[in-house]
Amino acid sequence: MLAVLAGIVWWTRQQAAPPQAGGGRNAGPMSIVPETIGKGDIGVSLNALGTVTSLATVTIRSQISGYLMKISFKEGDEVKKGDPIAEIDSRTYEATLAQAKGTLARDEAQLKGAQVDLTRYQNLATQNAVPHQTLDTQVALVAQYQGTVEADRAAVKSAEVNLAYCHIVSPINGRVGLRQVDLGNYVTPGDTNGLVVITQLEPISVLFTLPEDNLQAVKKRLKEGAVMPTAAYDRSGANKLADGSLQTFDSQIDPTTGTIKLRAQFENEGRTLYPNQFVNIRLLLDTHKDATTMSTAGIQRGVPGTFVYLVNADSTVSVRPVKLGVTDGDRVEVLSGLVPGDRIVIDGADKLREGAKVVVRSATDAANPAGTAKGTASGAANGAAKGDSKGDSKAGADPDKAGGGQHKRSEDGQTK
């Protein structure tokens, strides 16, 4: 009875024991995807958060008082500088201009008469025919009329300006927003909201901040006259919205955050940027030419520090410590530890160790593991089928041996 129980316990433990790990000394080779180290250009980029800001935003207000008689735009229209926006009742200002012109004509006539009298008195004064007091009075009168005429001319210009204000035009190129006042309302220069807001969208700028530690590098590049490409990405950082360039930076560092503001300008021809939009900014500070680069997928970190698995000529891998530089997307600069032509593991490095055997598979197989597994399973099934067929043929050729073998297995099963 005890022997039976001991046998059951032993059989149960054998069934529950895990299989040997694939990383053992006698285990099969591990499947990996390699990459060959090469040379190329890699950018030194700075990432920041920014807000889109228009270079010009104008609130259109009336500079005179009057009834709004005409609106010459539709909400959302694109307008050019000088395009008509609205018209205010101009009848009062036309009458004022006519009155000013009439006053100017009257005073000019009086000035002309005074100048004729002055010429006459000057001729008589040479003959001592008139007192000098009369001549002096006439000189003062001519000067008075001259001043009056100048004031009248200024009044005419003022009336002309007010009349021109009745026809409101766009001061910039931009996009018209929503209308703030309806037709027929009485508008004044003191209206808070104005008539409409025009916003310049082409070009447009983005304000963003960088740590003060980056200021000297940015300043150096701008002083050299370098054009620093700037890319704007959406909130997720995955989709590029526009390409532009850095224009300048602020004159003061924010003491509360230790950052400085910078402005980049974008042509925005595709209208992908709008004021107050939140964007991610990637500023290309510099480019390292002809640098040794590798994929970030090959980077491993552990007890040796930062390292990679180097694929050797005998289909084994070895641990190679590396020193890395700047990272640009999925590429990283290698400062030391690797040379162009070396092959490293970028996929399948989870169970590798020093000296492990590897078998190289293509990147296509790595991207389609289901197909690879299907092919492997199909090959294994075909191999098993061939083995069974071969075994059956042998059994058919020597039935005694086949029977003997079956009997032996039966005995083994009974013994167990």
Model description:
The chain is 35% helix and 34% strand. 18% of the residues are buried. The two termini are 14 Å apart. α2 (91-126) runs antiparallel to α3 (132-165). By secondary structure, the protein is α+β, with helices and mostly antiparallel strands.
Nutshell version of this structure?
The chain is α+β, with helices and mostly antiparallel strands.
List keywords for this structure.
four-stranded antiparallel β-sheet; 7 helices; disordered C terminus; six-stranded antiparallel beta barrel; single chain; about 425 residues; about 35% strand; alpha+beta
Distance N terminus to C terminus?
14 Å
- Note the overall shape: elongated
**Overall radius of gyration:** 46 Å
Helical coverage, percent range: 25-40%
* Strand line-up across the major sheet: 2-11-14-13-12-15
How many helical stretches? 7
Order of helices and strands: HEEEEEEHHEEEEEHEEEEEEEEEEEHHH
Q: Give a count of the beta strands, DSSP E runs of length 2 or more.
A: 22
Strand content: 25-35%
Mean pLDDT across residues: 84
What structural category do the secondary elements indicate? alpha+beta
- Characterize the biggest β-sheet: 6 strands, antiparallel, barrel
Give start-end ranges of low-pLDDT stretches: 16-25, 369-416
List the topology elements.
Elements: H1 2-16, E1 30-36, E2 38-54, E3 57-60, E4 66-71, E5 78-79, E6 84-88, H2 91-126, H3 132-165, E7 167-169, E8 174-176, E9 186-187, E10 196-199, E11 204-211, H4 215-223, E12 229-233, E13 240-254, E14 259-266, E15 278-295, E16 300-302, E17 305-311, E18 317-321, E19 323-328, E20 331-336, E21 343-347, E22 358-360, H5 363-367, H6 369-397, H7 399-415
Parallel strand pairs: 1-22
Antiparallel strand pairs: 1-21, 2-11, 2-15, 3-10, 4-6, 4-9, 5-8, 6-7, 8-10, 11-14, 12-13, 12-15, 13-14, 15-20, 16-17, 17-18, 19-20
Helix pairs in contact: 2-3, 6-7
